[in-house]
Amino acid sequence: MFEGLQEKLSKAFKTLSGKGKITEKNIKEAIKMVKLSLLEADVNYKVVKEFIAEVTEKATGEEVLKSLTPDQMFIKILRDELIRVMGEKSQLSLVHSPSYIMMVGLQGSGKTTSAAKLANLLKKKGKKTFLVAADTYRPAAIDQLITLGKKIDVPVFYGDRKDPVKIVREAIKEVKDSGYNVVIFDTAGRLHVDDEMMNELEEIKDILNPDEILMVVDAMAGQDAVNSAKIFNERLDVTGYVVTKMDGDARGGVILSIRYITNKPIKFIGVGEKIEDLEEFHPERIASRILGLGDVLSLIEKAEQELDKDKMQKLGKKMLNAEFTLEDFQEQLKEIKKLGSLSKIVEMLPGSPKVDINQSEKELKVIEAIINSMTPEERRNPKILNASRKKRIAKGSGTSVQEVNKLLKNYEEMKKMMKIFKKGKLPFNLKGFKI
Ligand code: GDP
User: Fold this and answer.
1) What molecular functions are annotated in GO for this chain (predicted)?
2) In this prediction, what percent of the chain has a pLDDT beyond 70?
3) Per the domain annotation, does 429 fall within a domain?
4) What per-residue confidence (pLDDT) applies to 53?
């Protein structure tokens, strides 16, 4: 997320590091670099203009805090300004029962996927959720929603599959007095904004009087997405946006421009193709990510949602007692994979530690394949692994006996280390060890 922008902005901070204080001269160069970074990230020029004016005023004004160094101060000013252009966090406003949410947007933006992701998120929050497939325009959109609905165990209504307005009217009858809290309507998009689509959406809006009209926009589409966001808002008075494909190499233009241009909030971001890959939009966390300060809060939240706490606690205890077997390790790997790919996890850490993600992912896959090829008994007691067993495991996991030996050696070393920890004797001096 935002690699290019992050890298360029960090060069701007560096011009100030080591400087005694912010002066008009040294800040000028840094601000120029920020301006270029934003323009290259495809941020709307009006937003850039105001952003730079505000940052210049704050950086050269009297607000500079004595406790911070010039580069830290500059980061703080940029962070505040990024948050300001993205607006405050805005939540769904679900007032009716059932509440209707209408999903709108152009074809390919990720509308159908986001409808199902949102249903999943709300279901996890305890809402009884229902989906309506009224995208009759894109072939396969209805079947796609039916499949996704099955996956998350949310019913999907699709009527005659032909007339969207009729489907919507029938769906309303279907959910009446049914106890559903939220009904999400997937509507038809087009490749470009056109009148037929807008008329259809206006008609559906009039029928539903929905609590939320969420427009789905593709972060990769840059200023085109911002322009269509503006047109949709003018016609439909949307209540918010879902910005998808933030996991791709989106440059930041959409996320930093849309609020300023439309005056409507981003409510969610799509961060991957999987059904769990939808996050509530937190401007301050995104600002931190853009500035390379990480997003530990989102990582913790994800861990709380996805991980089995009892299991992790038990595994942690076993580790401390040096009773950690390869079977436990297998369990732990399974749990951690629920948080997403390694690269996604590392991205949320401050300073995005420079590790070779591809290499680490590969190594983890090898470890997992080896452990999966063992019998439960071997995992619990690796001591029984003789040459022929190792050969069998290497063959089964598509690895080599050397790789099996390497894993066993690492495991033994880890156990030794845990024993030393337990005795309270640290094997190395932790002084100066930074967390
Ligand atoms: P629709 O025409 O707007 O209904 O688009 P779809 O929901 O079918 O999405 C189009 C494509 O974008 C599909 O391949 C989705 O898997 C993909 N997609 C949607 N949201 C995201 C996202 O947040 N990240 C990524 N990487 N892909 C997404």
Assistant:
1) 7S RNA binding; GTP binding; GTPase activity
2) 86
3) no
4) 93
Q: Are residues 72 and 116 in the same domain?
A: no
> What's the gap in Å between 216 CA and the centre of ligand 1?
10
Give the residue numbers spanning the domain of 158: 97-280
For residues 313 and 243, the model is more confident at: 243
Q: Helix 3-14 crosses helix 70-86 at what angle (to 10 degrees)? A: 140
User: Do 113 and 235 lie in a common domain?
Assistant: yes
Is residue 74 domain-shared with residue 106, that is, in the same domain? no
- In DSSP notation, 145-185 reads HHHHHHHHT--EE-TTSS-HHHHHHHHHHHHTTS--SEEEE
Whichever domain contains 234, its CATH number is: 3.40.50.300
Would you say the CB of residue 136 lies under 6 angstroms from ligand 1? Answer: no
Tell me the CA–centroid distance for residue 113 and ligand 1, in Å. Answer: 6
The whole-chain average pLDDT of the chain stands at 85
- Residue 247 Cβ inside 6 Å of ligand 1? The answer reads yes
Spatial separation of the C-alpha atoms in residues 185 and 193, rounded to whole Å: 19
Secondary structure (H, E, C), 252-271: CHHHHHHHHHHCCCEEEEEC
Do residues 373 and 330 both lie within one domain? Answer: yes
Between CA 293 and CA 303, with CA 297 as vertex, the angle to 5 degrees is 130
The neighbour count for residue 81, using CB atoms within 10 Å, is 20
Q: For residue 379, what is the domain's CATH number? A: 1.10.260.30
389 annotated as belonging to a binding site for a ligand? no
To the question of whether residue 23 is assigned a binding role by annotation, the answer is no
Please write the tens of the pLDDT for every residue from 89-107: 899 999 998 999 999 999 9
What is the share, in percent, of the chain residues with pLDDT greater than 90?
48
Q: Which tokens belong to 174?
A: 């279907």
Mind listing the pLDDT tens digit for each residue in 31-87? Answer: 999 999 999 888 999 999 999 999 988 887 655 566 667 787 888 888 889 999 999
- The answer to whether residue 147 is domain-embedded is yes
What's the length of the chain?
Answer: 435
